[in-house]
Amino acid sequence: MKKNKDKELVGVKEIARRANVSIATVDRVIHNRTGVSVKTKDKINAIIEELNYQPNILARRLASKKILQFAALIPAVSEETDYWEAPLNGIIQAEAEIKPYGINIEKYFFDQNDRSSFVKQAETVLENNVQGVLLAPMFIEESKAFVEACQQRQIPYVFINSDIPNQNSLCYIGPHLYRSGYLGAHLVSFLVNSNDKVLVVNISKEIDTEHHVLRKEEGFRAYFADNKKNNEIIKTDIRETDYLSVKRNLIAVLKDHHIKAIFVTNSRVSFVAHYLQEANIKDIPLVGFDFLKENIGYLKSGVIDFLICQKPQEQGYRGIMALYNFLVHDSVVDKIYFMPIDIITKENYEFYRN
Amino acid sequence: MKKNKDKELVGVKEIARRANVSIATVDRVIHNRTGVSVKTKDKINAIIEELNYQPNILARRLASKKILQFAALIPAVSEETDYWEAPLNGIIQAEAEIKPYGINIEKYFFDQNDRSSFVKQAETVLENNVQGVLLAPMFIEESKAFVEACQQRQIPYVFINSDIPNQNSLCYIGPHLYRSGYLGAHLVSFLVNSNDKVLVVNISKEIDTEHHVLRKEEGFRAYFADNKKNNEIIKTDIRETDYLSVKRNLIAVLKDHHIKAIFVTNSRVSFVAHYLQEANIKDIPLVGFDFLKENIGYLKSGVIDFLICQKPQEQGYRGIMALYNFLVHDSVVDKIYFMPIDIITKENYEFYRN
DNA sequence: CTGAAAGCGCTTACAG
DNA sequence: CTGAAAGCGCTTACAG
Q: What end-to-end distance do the CA atoms of chain A give, in Å?
């Protein structure tokens, strides 16, 4: 009438009894520590298997006073953009949730416009003996070097916001850039007629290395091609990210072309909105990215028609939880988790959780 | 040099030492049990306050072998609709997550078309001594009676999917129906011109008691009024929910009116899509609700243009977690949590998590 | 290579 | 009204 097989919870004590060893030895086997003869080890493993032993996480974390240290390596919130406030909030939310279970998270901020600040912070992370890392691998080469060092130290790491494929990361959590551009085109197509000219605007200091915006543009164009639309697509790259430069550029393009809709490939869409408002242009629909305060302002006032957004906060949250689940619960985690591609309009932004 | 104030964790032992009592007494005060003199109780509470004592959840749940029982009282998945599969999955997901912490969830299913099945299941819940309840209060009066019984027994309960205001629920987690109708109108307005006729379709056996669809219709109409649109809004109520009845009804309406877009106020939008496809009508855009398999099929094939969806799975998940956080972590939980109003199209449905 | 024992921070009878 | 002690299922020195 023993019913160990189904629900009755077995613990190290029962395993030890069956194997005729002490619980300390069982513990050694469970944690793959050295100093156990192959024979006992095998015997114990067999019993663990048979009993389908599930360790009690509570007891484990209570007894082991060890505290896990995670590092979060992300861009600082700058005056330029408060985008990174959202992932940070997600990280903080996860932190609050798992702190009771003995996890600490140290945040390391770098300057998006300064590779060396990334390198410096990455070094600090490595010095501070951490058990897991979350990072936004903006700088590809520097990130590769860093994660290689992590790998040598057996520290698992997760990417958020953008991916570097084939890097043995525990997982990537973030957008599918190409598809978000594709969706952008879909939305634009609701706003124009079949032969209208459409403008794509890239605003970034380093457009050529920013795979971000380029992938989105690619997706955008693909939509029109795939659906055999006749709309002509005009494109402008703006490498100076101050408002006046954007304005100057737009004035030129809009004079040359009879544009019927504008798609901005990143969060700088507010600059374009600003110009449209200033110039009192009301008949050009505008689609862009990200749930930033300024963008929402223009959404409310009707200058921006759609924002595409990918829950940056949730990316931070999920990134940390992936580390936690992997390290604490031994869970397997999905190698890639694409965030949903959310469509925000004037009528639903109030309910959006970034 | 003692630094209890900031980070050094204090436990019952330290409190007992300072209060000059045993830890058992401290425990009694912490849990508000009887059998402690007012004087000692006050003294201990003062110390707890001063030290900002935070109980160790791990130790607490480990020591107390007590298992919390939650009940989930929701509609069964029927052949009619598999909508409720999603909340159920969310509940199961939450269950997996908190089972290690000693929570068990029993599911009680009732028939959406049969109030008495709800009543019967509700009674069973009350017999089975549970510590928390999640329910979908579809049947208003019966639900009120049930939650009153819960309240008498001091059992906290949360509503998902639809709300009954002023019922002292721990919280409501679900859509803002009016606003989702409002958004539906916004989307429809992208698809029609200024004087086009628009059709609203309600499909439900009990339209008049279903506040659901009525609230959405209200929001839909409000959008057109608020934005001073001239579109005429035609409406049809379909009370027989089989395909042939829907078809017959649509044929009649579409003959009488030159309809330019259709808005269906619930997940039955697939019936309308079915008809449009069958009749080879391609120039009437269609907007409806819910991420159901059939609906997605029509979204893919372009018959449905937009689906509005409110993460039913997450509703189930969050509902359970609200109970857990309240009961286990003593957290305060938001009285109302409106789900985001998601817009699904052909181009982003693949990334949607229901 | 292995085991006995203390301890993690609580809760739970039990005794008075 | 109060306290001493055992125990929850693990981990961690320490001893051999």
A: 54
CA nearest to nucleotide C9 C1': residue: B59
Cβ distance B351 to A176 less than 8 Å, yes or no, reads: yes
Nucleotide lying nearest to A34, CA to C1' measure: C1
Task: Name A68's bridge partners.
Answer: A103
Q: What is the CATH number of domain B64-175+312-339?
A: 3.40.50.2300
Most B-contacting residue of A216, A343, A353 (CB-CB within 10 A), to test interface: A343
Task: Tell me the per-residue pLDDT of B90-125, one tens digit each, with 9 for 90 and over.
Answer: 999 999 988 888 899 999 999 988 889 999 999 999
The shortest CB-CB distance from A182 to any of B61, B342, B347 is to B347
Q: Do domains A64-175+312-339 and A177-309 have the same CATH topology?
A: yes
DSSP secondary structure string for all residues of A110-176: E-TT-HHHHHHHHHHHHHT--SEEEE---SHHHHHHHHHHHHHTT--EEEESS--SSS--SEEEE--
For A54-61, what is the mean pLDDT?
88
| Residue whose C-alpha is closest to residue B94's, from B113, B72, B121 | B72
| Contact in structure between A70 and A321 (CB atoms under 8 Å) | no
Distance to chain A for B248, nearest Cα, Å: 31
- In the structure, what pLDDT confidence band is assigned to residue A210 with cuts at 50, 70 and 90? low
Contact B44/B21 with Cβ under 8 angstroms? yes
**Per-residue pLDDT at A5 exceeds 80:** no
Of A223, A339, A352, the CB nearest to B351: A339
Question: What is the pLDDT at residue B54?
Answer: 87
Strand C-proximal residues of B, range 51-70, CB below 7 A, are 53-56, 59-60, 62-66
| CATH code given to domain B2-55 | 1.10.260.40
The pLDDT score that the predictor gives to residue A129 is: 86
Q: Does domain B177-309 have CATH number 3.30.1330.10?
A: no
The answer to whether B349 contacts chain A (CB < 8 Å) is no
CA B95, CA B93: separation in Å to the nearest integer?
Answer: 5
Residues in chain A: 354
| Half-sphere exposure for B2 (CA within 13 Å, toward CB) | 6
**How many angstroms is C1' of D16 away from CA of B286?**
80
Residue pair B215/B232 in contact (Cβ under 8 Å)? The answer is no
Q: Where are the domains of chain A?
A: 2-55, 64-175+312-339, 177-309
Contact B190 A186 (CB under 8 A): no
Asked if residues A263 and A287 have their Cβ atoms less than 8 Å apart, the reply is yes
Residue A16 has pLDDT above 60, yes or no: yes
Q: Which residue on chain A is closest to B353 by alpha carbon? A: A340
